[in-house]
Design a protein that fits this description.
heterodimer; A: 316 residues; alpha/beta; Rossmann fold; 2 domains; six-stranded mixed beta sheet; four-stranded antiparallel beta sheet; 8 helices; 33% helix; B: 491 residues; alpha+beta; 4 domains; eight-stranded antiparallel beta sheet; 23 strands; elongated; disordered N terminus; binds guanosine-5'-triphosphate; binds magnesium ion
Chain lengths: 316, 491
């Protein structure tokens, strides 16, 4: 295995010390969930969104099925507005780990030229993410889909089960979730119904970073500070290096050290000013952070309860 | 206990924790009747331990409006994240939150008090190490308080905090606090709970939650809630021997066959002799494989891949266990369960039962039901309505494999699934196998055989024997001891 620019920015790569018991327990739980779903469902798939949570998810899937291959495909919903560095990272991972990668873009998006700038973030998310995801899940006839969502991300996620039941049209009914006792998961569904499975439910953002560090997990470089071009728009630092980017009247394109706490579509993902170029720096910064990671995301700010609404409609 | 030291510790806490810091998080729930202040308490806990970030605090202040005259935000909104919950001002489903003090980390499940959503309380209770039971100081202990205390104990929670809340609304009245502590002490004793700490709190004002309430309650000298949580113990190691419920068989190539699962009890190392249940075949452990390295031991909680030294038939749903202390295998078990759905549990109906990775058909016959008011079990062979706690007989078509829940919280736990709706309709805890060996057929003559182990394994794997595995008692020993035992029978 070769070392590339994507490998974790750890400062030294000596022999790995044993995992801290807290992380070990989280890892064990996630592996258990992976194996249970793979054994109980006919056509599982793993949602792969290229960010840090997906990277941890991928690493755990490799561990869960070792020495075998991951026994299901990875699905990336490409909105066409991802950072180019995310796409090259995705392709490199697929090659390096011999992954079965499926990429889907909503054909309607390309035809109607859906853009978060002209159509707004809500409609863009609706069509290019939620609708696209439903199309891809239907096309693959997947009956279980792994996602990297964590309960600490948002108040409606904090309510979600590890096996989250979906109707044939991918709807979530938060008022009628199945009880989920101990680690005994109920995977019984009828044809057309499905389950979203969340192996990282009990992880926090800090856990994710500590695990990335302990396990040396490769990440897209966007998580580390570098000199990048951006503008300040609606209180958000927007990346300004794409050719589709247009500065609004009065906007100044600046250049400074910035990085991202979450990765998504670049017009909807706010950067933070930071000089954290190594994992240690990132973790140190996180431990004193006074705002949550989703603060930089336009999607959550549209309206109160917007995540729950999107989830009811089939969003991850 | 003196008149001023009012933390009611019924029995001394278990041995002081060893010097080495346990970095595993403590799992706890809040429970109690509707509106007692559970979500407010956890919200306050998150707030005072600085787990609420600036943007979340701003959202909270924006959403709170004017809900109390103290000018404080509605801390419950940090937990009640569903639209329906915010609209109705109640908790519907359990919320999981994570926070830490500089001493340890916590996973807290905030459960709903409303009786209709007892199933969601049970969901939270099943994995908890400790329960914070809330009581509204004005309303006192209600039937729902007892129900939650009972479910929590049934599910194996041994540490309780009784949070007597809204103490600010009764003028910090010590007499009322003492009265409620005493009343709960009675209930706890009848439930067999030994470890209870009672604390007077105002969740809303944050008194005795993270910061002490000395200014308003100089009479209280006990610990704050957080102090109790920091000293609580994480679920003790399971007491039975090695257990590996097999989740899947890994066959990446001709040369490798491994059994994947999470160790549900005990420990294992290469060279150990194990038995595969329900077939009863035996083998030795050759390797413990994980992604990181080939390991020389695995303990409860580890997700591993086990390689055995010989070709044996092992499938998903089987259990690999230590030979010396095997789980019970049988067609009939006794259990306690909580009915979780509106349809209740119907006698004689065939449900799916899932325990670990094993799913099989079962028919359920209730034998008694718990009367929450008196705490007594009454004979009852009809249906168990929603939220009822009952004792039942389980009858299987194929051999089932369990430990008593008391001995192992993984291999003794199960859920029932209604085959008509696919919904989870009950959570259950195994009491034990029904009727010991011979119990099914007490009068019949029995034969004791002593044979070479390899021959016994072959015979046990055969159809005739495995069908009636339930009626067969097996012990493995060395030839000398076998001869000795047979000799004893002769004399
Ligand atoms: N004065 C006062 N009010 C409180 C206190 N704790 C909670 N409250 C109020 O009691 C009401 C109910 O609080 P919640 O936290 O929603 O109660 P809950 O137990 O979570 O309710 P459910 O989850 O629906 O069972 C809210 O209006 C709170 O502000 C307290 O210590 N003092
Ligand atoms: Mg509540």
């Amino acid at each position: 295995m070769h070392i590339s620019e994507f490998d974790a920015h750890t400062q030294d790569k000596q022999v790995k010390p044993p995992l801290d018991p807290h992380l070990k327990a989280l890892e064990n739980e996630a592996i258990h969930i992976f194996r249970e779903v793979a054994a109980e469902f006919e056509r599982p798939v793993m949602l792969y969104s290229i960010g840090k949570d997906s990277s941890v998810l991928l690493h755990l899937a490799r561990k869960a099925f070792y020495p075998g291959r991951i026994p299901f495909p990875l699905l990336h919903i490409d909105t066409g507005w991802k950072f180019p560095e995310m796409i090259s990272f995705r392709d490199e991972m697929a090659k390096r780990f011999d992954l079965d990668l499926v990429v889907h873009t909503n054909p309607r998006g390309a035809k109607e030229n859906i853009s978060p700038f002209t159509h707004g973030s809500a409609l863009h998310t609706d069509i290019m993410k939620t609708e696209a995801l439903r199309q891809a899940l239907d096309a693959g006839q997947y009956d279980a889909a792994f996602g990297g969502a964590r309960r600490d991300e948002e108040a409606s996620r904090a309510k979600e089960r590890i096996y989250s039941f979906r109707t044939p049209d991918h709807k979530w009914d938060p008022r009628n979730q199945r009880p989920e006792l101990w680690n005994v998961y109920n995977g019984m569904i009828r044809r057309g119904e499905s389950v979203r499975a969340f192996p990282l439910s009990n992880w926090t953002e800090v856990d994710i970073w500590r695990y990335i560090q302990a396990e040396n997990i490769p990440l897209p470089p966007l998580y580390y500070a570098a000199k990048r071009k951006f503008v300040e728009r609606d209180g958000m630092l927007m990346w300004a290096e794409d050719k589709r980017f247009e500065a609004l009247p009065g906007e100044q394109v600046q250049e400074d050290y910035i990085r991202f706490r979450t990765l998504g579509c670049w017009p909807l993902t706010g950067a933070i000013k930071s000089h954290a170029t190594t994992l240690d720096d990132v973790i140190a910064e996180l431990e004193i952070a006074t705002v949550s990671e989703r603060q930089g995301r336009a999607i959550d700010r549209d309206q109160a309860g917007s995540m729950e609404k999107k989830k009811r409609e089939g969003y991850f | 206990m003196t008149a001023t030291a009012t933390a009611t510790v019924i029995a001394p806490a278990a041995e002081a924790a060893p010097a080495l810091r346990d970095t595993r998080p403590l799992r706890l729930i809040t429970c109690g009747s509707v509106d007692d202040g559970k979500s407010t308490l956890i919200g306050r806990l998150l707030w005072d331990t600085k787990a609420v970030k600036e943007d979340q605090a701003a959202a909270l202040n924006r959403d709170s409006g004017k809900q109390n005259d103290l000018g404080l935000p509605d801390f419950a909104l940090l937990l009640d994240g569903l639209q329906a919950e915010r609209e109705q001002g109640i908790t519907i489903d359990v919320a999981y939150r994570y926070f830490a003090t500089d001493k340890r980390s916590f996973i807290v499940a905030d459960t709903p008090g409303h009786e209709q959503y007892t199933r969601n309380m049970a969901t939270g209770a099943s994995t908890a190490d400790l329960a914070v039971l809330l009581v509204d100081a004005r309303a006192g202990i209600l039937e729902q308080t007892r129900r939650h205390a009972t479910i929590a104990t049934l599910m194996g929670i041994k540490q309780f905090v009784l949070a007597i809340n809204k103490i600010d609304l009764i003028n910090y009245d010590k007499a009322r606090f003492d009265e409620l502590s005493r009343e709960f002490k009675e209930i706890a004793l009848s439930l067999g709970v030994k470890q209870v700490t009672a604390i007077p709190v105002s969740a809303l004002k944050g008194e005795n939650v993270v910061y002490d309430g000395k200014a308003s309650m100089p009479w209280y000298e006990g610990p704050t809630l957080v102090e109790v949580l920091e000293l609580a113990t994480v679920r003790s190691a399971q007491t039975v021997g090695f257990r590996l419920p097999v989740q899947r068989v890994s066959r990446p190539g001709e040369s490798f066959r491994g059994y994947q699962g999470t160790v549900a009890g005990g420990a294992v190392k290469p060279g150990d002799s194990v038995v595969i249940l329900p077939s009863g075949m035996v083998a030795n452990v050759k390797q413990i494989v994980t992604f990181d390295l080939v390991r020389n031991a695995a303990v409860a909680g580890d997700a591993i891949t086990l390689v055995l030294d010989r070709q044996v038939d092992v499938a998903r749903g089987d259990m690999i266990a230590t030979i010396d202390a095997q789980p019970q295998v049988g067609l009939a078990f006794d259990a306690q369960l909580v009915a979780l759905q509106p349809g209740g549990i119907e006698p004689g109906k065939r449900y799916w039962l899932k325990s670990g990775s094993r799913r099989q058909r079962v028919s359920v016959q209730p034998s008694s039901i718990l009367d929450l008011k008196s705490g007594k079990w009454n004979r009852h062979d009809g249906a168990l309505p929603m939220n009822a706690i009952g004792k039942v007989h389980l009858s299987f078509d194929e051999a089932a494999i369990f430990d008593a829940y008391e001995l192992n919280r993984t291999t003794g736990a199960f859920i029932l699934i209604d085959p008509d709706t696919n919904n989870t309709v009950a959570g259950g805890m195994i009491a034990g196998k029904r009727g010991d060996v011979g119990g099914l057929n007490n009068e019949a003559e029995r034969v004791i055989l002593s044979l070479p182990a390899d021959l016994a394994d072959k015979i046990l794997a055969s159809g005739i024997l495995s069908e009636r595995r339930d009626e067969i008692d097996i012990r493995r020993t060395n030839p000398g001891r076998a001869a000795e035992l047979l000799g004893e029978l002769d004399s």
